Amino acid sequence: MQNLCRKGINPxxxxxxxxxxxxxxxxxxxxxxxxxxxxxxxxxxxxxxxITRAVPIFGGxxxxxxxxxxxxxxDTRDRLLYLISHTQPDLEYCPALVPLVSMxxxxxxxxxxxxxxxxxxxxxxxxxxxxxxxxxxALLYATTFRALLEQRSPKVLQHMETDLGINFPNLIESLxxxxxxxxFNYPVVHHLLDVYMGEGTKILYRVSLALFDEARxxxxxxxxxxxxxxxxxxxxxxxxxxxxxxxxxxxxLAREHFVHLEQQHEDIMRSVPALTEFGGQPLAVKDGPTxxxxxxxxxxxxxxxxxxxxx
Length: 311
Known about the structure:
The chain has 16 helices and no strands. The chain is an all-alpha fold.
C-alpha cells in the first residue's frame, strides 16, 4: 500500500483509498449513524444548503485560499467545516483542515469526508499523526524543520535569514498548514495527499527539504526576500512531482529522528503563552464588506498575510 501511495493513486481509486487510509471507513463501520447524528445536533430539523453564518477556518490559512470547487462544492465544504467545529468544540487551531476538506471533496462524498476527517483528528490527538492542532506545536514543527535544514544546507538558511530577513519558521508554517496547496499544481497536491494519508506529516518535512535543495542556486542568487520567495514558487510549480520523488528518497528521516529533534526544542512549547496554544478566533468566508454573512463562492481569507514571513 505504501508503494502504491508513493507512486500516486489512480484518480478513479483515490476516494476509496483515502477513505480507507484515513481511518474513515473503519470509523463509519464502528459508528454508522455518527454523521446523521452530528447533522441533527448541529442543524436540528433543517440542514441548510448554504451556511448563513461565519465559517470557521481554524486559525488559517496565511494566504488567500484558492480552490477548484464549484459553488455547490463550496457550500458543501462550508457546511462540513461548520459541522466539524460543532463536533470538535475544543478545536480552534487546525489550518490544514480547509485545504484538506476542499481537496477531499473532489473524490469523496460529504459523509465520507466527515468520517475521514473525524478519524484523522482522533489519530492526531493520540499520535500527532496528521494535523497541527496547537499554535505552539506549529511553531515547534517549524523550528524542528529549521534545525533539520541547518544540518543539511546551512548556507541556504543563513542567506535567507541573515541576508534577506526572512522569518523562516513562519515560512515553513505557512507551507505545512496549506499542505502545499499554494505552491503545487492540483495533480501534484493530490499525489502529495496520497502519501500524506498513509504516512502522515513526515512527507511535509521531506518535500520541504527537497524544495529548498532544488531551489538552492536561485535562493543564493536572490537579493531580496521577494526574489527568494518567487524562486521557491517557481521551483514548486515546475518540479512538483520531482520534489515528491526526491523527498521520498531522502535517507535518515525516520519518525524517530523527528521526535528526537522535537525533544531538543521542547522549550518552544513552554515559551508560547497559554492563550495561543489553540490559535485565535475562527475566521470567516469573505462576503462583502463585513465578511460575516453567507458564503457566495468567495475566497476564504485570514487576518495574517504573507508579510509575516519577513522579520
